[in-house]
Design goal:
This protein has 108 residues and is mostly helical. Helices cover 91% and strands 0% of the residues. It has helices spanning 5-50, 56-107.
Length: 108
């Protein structure tokens, strides 16, 4: 059985890269939404503090809440990233398996 491993690995690499690239924009979009939401909230809190609508303790408490929400949202990003990586790994594996199956069929 003669397999061109360089070509097979290149095909597998490109399959993994394409799978990651296809799904990465979802992660980027979610990160942009998070950033926009927190920017708005933080600006609003800073404005309220500056206008004396809230006191420093309230500001600090609200900022702690923002930090906790951000941490939770970034955990979601980590999960999304793992899903993207898994899809890339699956595409890599499938491309390798397809090449080996094809080589076996040709050898028979």
């Amino acid at each position: 059985m003669n397999i061109d491993w360089e070509a097979v690995l290149q095909k597998a690499f490109f399959a993994a890269r394409d799978a990651a690239a296809k799904n990465a924009p979802q992660v980027e979009h979610y990160l942009r939404e998070i950033a926009a939401a927190h920017e708005y909230a933080i600006r609003s809190l800073a404005r309220a503090l500056g206008d004396s609508d809230i006191d420093l303790d309230t500001f600090k408490s609200e900022m702690d809440d923002e930090a906790a929400m951000l941490a939770a949202e970034l955990h979601v990003v980590a999960v999304m990233g793992k899903a993207v990586a898994q899809r890339a790994a699956n595409a890599f594996r499938d491309a390798l398996a397809d090449a080996v199956v094809m080589a076996m069929k040709l050898a028979v």
